[in-house]
C-alpha cells in the first residue's frame, strides 16, 4: 500500500457527483491513505449532503474551518471535486471577505508540500484567488475554459495535467485517472523524501 500513513482531504457539499466521491473513498483507502471529507459545518456536529445524480446521502463530520496550520500540514493532498461542490463552497456572508473554503484552499496552495487536486468544475473554488492559478498549466471542464483563462491559467488539452503541486482533470468521469495521478505523485514525493534521508 503506497500511501500508508498519509492523509487526503476531499472537500464536500451538496450536488456532488456520486461515482467520483465513492471512488475516492475506496481507491485512496485501498492504497493505505486516510480519506477525510471536509466541509463547512455551520456550527453543526454533522451535515448530510445529497448527490447530484441520484440524491445519495453522504454524511460529513469534519470541518476545514477547525484546521490550524499544523492540522493542514498533516494532509498530503487536498482535493476539490467536480459537480456543484465548489460553487456551493464559495458562498460567503460577507462579500468583502473570502469564503472560508477559498481561504482554506489558499492556505493549501501556500504549502507546496501539499498536492492540490482540482477536477472539472472544482476550479470555481479558486476563482476568487486567481494568483494561485496564474501562469500554471491546467485542464478544466470545457464550460470553464473562460474562467481558467481569466484566472491567467494556461489551458492544456489533456484529461489530466500535472504542474508541480497542482493536479487538474477534465471531468468527474476522469476521476480514476485523476486519482491514479495523485497516488503516483504522492508516491514519488515519498520516494524522494526517503532518498534524501538515506
Could you describe the 3D structure shown?
The protein is α/β, with parallel strands linked by helices and 198 residues long. It has one domain (7-197): Rossmann fold. It is 31% helix and 22% strand. It is globular, with a radius of gyration of 16 Å. The chain starts with 6 loop residues before the first strand and ends with a helix. The mean pLDDT is 96.
How are the SSEs placed, and which strands pair?
Blueprint: E1 7-11, H1 18-30, E2 34-39, E3 47-50, E4 57-60, E5 62-63, H2 69-73, E6 75-80, H3 85-89, H4 100-109, E7 115-119, E8 137-138, H5 145-150, E9 154-155, E10 160-163, E11 166-169, H6 175-197
Parallel strand pairs: 1-2, 1-6, 2-5, 6-7, 7-11, 8-9
Antiparallel strand pairs: 3-4, 10-11
Helix pairs in contact: 1-6
Instruction: Tell me the number of helical segments per DSSP (H or I, 4 or more residues long).
Output: 6
| Gyration radius from CA atoms, angstroms | 16 Å
Number of strands: 11
CATH topology: Rossmann fold
Q: What is the global morphology?
A: globular
- Low-pLDDT runs of 5+ residues are none
Strand order of the largest sheet: 5-2-1-6-7-11-10
- CATH class call: Alpha Beta
Residue-averaged pLDDT: 96
Total count of domains:
1
Corresponding CATH superfamily: Class I glutamine amidotransferase (GATase) domain
How big a fraction of the residues is strand? 15-25%
Structural class: alpha/beta
Question: What is the succession of H and E elements?
Answer: EHEEEEHEHHEEHEEEH
User: Which architecture per CATH?
Assistant: 3-Layer(aba) Sandwich
Helix fraction, binned, reads 25-40%
